[in-house]
Design a protein that fits this description.
With 278 residues, the protein is α+β, with helices and mostly antiparallel strands. It has eight helices and 15 strands. The strands form two sheets. Strands 7, 8, 9, 10, 11, 12, 13, 14 and 15 form a nine-stranded mixed beta sheet that branches. A six-stranded antiparallel beta sheet has the order 2-1-6-5-3-4. Bound molecules: pyridoxal-5'-phosphate. The site of pyridoxal-5'-phosphate has 12 residues, from helix 6 and strand 13. It catalyses: D-alanine + 2-oxoglutarate = D-glutamate + pyruvate. Homodimer.
Length: 278
């Protein structure tokens, strides 16, 4: 494990953030999580591009190019000597006496590199449970912002209900999970929420779309309701850390036969092939 704070490598327990750090005080920043498999990053450029987009969306003055961030991240992973790991990178509006207005100071860039803790194989083999909750987040969920309070509260509620994830909805229309994108399979087609400001444009979502096209499975980016979610043939969620995770029960309703379905399995098999070929 290793930490990085504004140009210096640190051990994780020594990484100290000043009280007047805007990430700490306001959640005034953005972040990314990038998975490395056997020393190779999965879709690094896409993650870095999203980081830069999130930064621009909250008007962080970023000087680094995509290539600069690539170097920074690759160097940190090399330094950590970890092969299967997650890089967490965060950019905030810097360190300045607490005032809401933007300070005229450099941004802070911090990172951690930690060993990946993938979900247990039986979770993917048997599928996991989810609950449906209201999406109480703000209007700009396409930004990977540090402000995760509604996500955290919903995830905790899910966990306390014995569930892996909460699938969120606005007025009965599914947006996404608390830390994942959500999909249903109906009559052999994949449906997922379209890329609007209401959801994060997931990098794993991008991978699933590419894989679906390769496998000739229709990938339909259209809004769908919680009713359709409950009556779907298959449901799954995706994220960098959980990859493709089958959902077999939502609230008290079994999905399909209550076991991971064939389309989800095919997608995951192809996903694993892509990882093996990195
Ligand atoms: N949606 C939300 C709200 C997330 O926090 C995440 C990831 O943590 C995702 C979707 C999935 O994004 P990705 O596949 O890029 O990890």
């Amino acid at each position: 494990e290793i930490g990085y704070v504004n140009g210096k490598y640190v051990s994780l327990d020594e990484a100290v953030i000043p009280i007047d750090e805007r990430g700490h005080q306001f959640g005034d920043g953005v972040y990314e999580v990038i998975r490395f498999y056997n020393g190779k990053p999965f879709m690094l450029v896409e993650h870095v591009e999203r980081l830069i987009n999130s930064s621009k969306a909250i008007r962080l003055p970023i000087e680094q190019s995509v290539e600069d961030f690539n170097q920074l991240i690759l160097q940190a992973v090399e330094k950590s000597e970890l092969k299967d790991c997650n890089v967490y990178i965060q950019i905030t509006r810097g360190i300045a006496t607490r005032l809401h207005l933007f300070p005229n100071v450099p941004v802070s860039i911090t990172m951690t590199v930690r060993e990946a803790k993938p979900p247990k194989p039986e979770m993917r083999d048997n599928g996991v449970k989810a609950i449906i909750l209201d999406d109480e987040r703000w209007a700009n969920c396409y930004i990977k912002s540090l402000n995760l309070l509604p996500n955290i509260l919903a995830k905790q509620t899910a966990d306390e209900a014995g569930c892996y994830e909460a699938i969120l909805n606005r007025d009965g229309v599914v947006t996404e999970g608390t830390s994942s994108n959500a999909y249903i399979i109906k009559e052999g087609k994949i449906f997922t929420a379209p890329l609007t400001k209401q959801i994060l444009p997931g990098i794993t979502r991008m991978a699933v779309k590419r894989i679906a096209e390769k496998l000739n499975i229709d990938f339909v980016e259209e809004p769908f309701t919680t009713d359709l979610l409950l009556s779907a043939d298959e449901v799954f969620v995706t994220s960098t850390t959980s990859e493709i995770m089958p959902i077999v029960k939502i609230d008290d309703n079994s999905i399909g036969n209550g076991v991971p379905g064939p389309v989800t399995k095919r997608l995951y098999e192809q996903f694993q092939l892509e990882i093996a070929a990195l």
